[in-house]
Structures are given as structure tokens and as C-alpha cells.
Design brief:
The chain is built from nine helices and no strands. The protein is mainly α and about 160 residues long. The N and C termini lie far apart (about 35 Å).
Amino acid sequence: MNLTDIGLLIQTRREALGLSQARLARLSGLSRATINQLENGSLVDLGTHRLLGLLHLLGMDLTAQTRTPRTQALALLSQTTSVSYKTALMPDALAQALISGELPDALLPQVSTLLDEAPLPLIVSGLEEVAQRTHTPPKTLWKNLTAWAQALQSPRTAWV
């Protein structure tokens, strides 16, 4: 398998997750031009570290096949963001908020932590789980999550 083949698989996975090239670039720390060149087969070299990081973010491995989805990614994401808080972020409450786009005041601290500190691959897996369970388009979930990041002024560059 060559970089062109991997690029096509990355494009398919990106689209399945409802990510734009620009959003994937911000999440991965690569430029949008690099993502574009990778997907259209014109990128000559990416480097192992960057390629592995991108594949990991998308839930893929070096064979460029989708890894077995992280079981209970949404529950793990909720647990991760609730560590420092008295009130836990319930997975169903997070899922409902992601679907509706409405962020209840009670969830603000945990969601702020999620946006600023949760591992990006875990966020991707959690949103994928919500999309699959609820048949909500992933783009809708990403749009809502990004809107929250802007409203809460998250300093993480992935949300800019």
C-alpha cells in the first residue's frame, strides 16, 4: 500500500466522520493543504510520525483499516472529563446535548474540560459512537461541538 492508497482511505474515513479537510487539519496539527494533497495523491512524503498520528486520530492503524471501535467511547469520554468535578457528566446527557446543540449550564464545566483537555482521538470516537447510536449526521455533532468551543472560548487550536 502506498501513500496515494492511504490518502484515499483517509478521505473516505474523514467523510464518514463528517469532518472537513480544514477541521481534520486543525485536529491533527497538519495544514489543510497537506490533508488535501494526501487525499488527492499529490503528496510525496508525510513522515511516519505525522502519518501515524493522523491515522490514530481517525481510528485507523498503519494498515489503513478502521480499528475496532473503542468500546464505550462516550462513557470513557464522559468519565475522563468528570474527574475533577463533584457532579459527573453522564454519557446520555452529553449525547443529548451534542444532538440538540443546546449546552445546559450544569454541563458547562465538564464540557469545557472536554474541549480543552480530552484526547482528540477519544473525542472523535465519542462523536462517532453518538452518531451511530442516534443516526445523527456526524457533521451536525461536529458543528455543535465547534460552536460550544467558540462560545466557551476554548484555547485549543483544534477548535479555531
